[in-house]
Amino acid sequence: MSSPVIDVDYEQPAAKNGTGTGAACDTRHAWARVPAEPSPDQRVALKERIRRLLRERNAVMVSHFYVHPDLQDLAEETGGIVSDSLEMARFGRDHAATTLVVSGVRFMGETSKILSPEKRVLMPDLDANCSLDLGCPVDEFSAFCDQHPDRTVVVYANTSAAVKARADWLVTSSCALDVVSALHAQGRKILWGPDRHLGDYIQRQTGADMVSWNGACIVHDEFKALELELLIKEHPSAKVLVHPESPADVIALADAVGSTSAILNAAQRMDAKEFIVATDTGMLHKLRTLNPGKTFIEAPTAGNGGTCKSCAHCPWMAMNGLAELANALETGAGEIHVDPRLGLRARLPIDRMLAFTAGLKNGQAPGSLIAGIGAA
Question: Are 82 and 102 in contact (CB under 8 A)?
Answer without folding.
Answer: no
